[in-house]
Amino acid sequence: MRNPKRLMAATTLGSEALIVFFATLVAYGLVPMEQRSSTYLVVGGVLVLLCLLAAGMLRRRGGYALGWVLQVVIIAGGFVVPLMFVVGGVFAVIWICSIVIGNRIEREQAEVARRMARE
Question: Which InterPro entries has this protein been placed in (predicted)?
């Protein structure tokens, strides 16, 4: 049986990777042409990879810890692209819901399995 919390959290992190990718392009495009450097692209690329890495690491607690750290970092991206305060906040709420609802589903599945084992 699939782990619902891991599935929901991985979906959230995968979606965030796309959002971070597009926010990186926006941040890069906001800088005047003569002042552009690859810094925004490198930092954004690292964040995208970390989102995908965290999604793949969700079998262990470290993946969830990295996911929590990424939520904070992505919200802090609002200092570069102000709309990321809102988008990052929305994804942080989705992340929290994924964890809370996923835990609830796991408990309910365990309860059903215990009931079926007794019968």
Answer: DUF4233
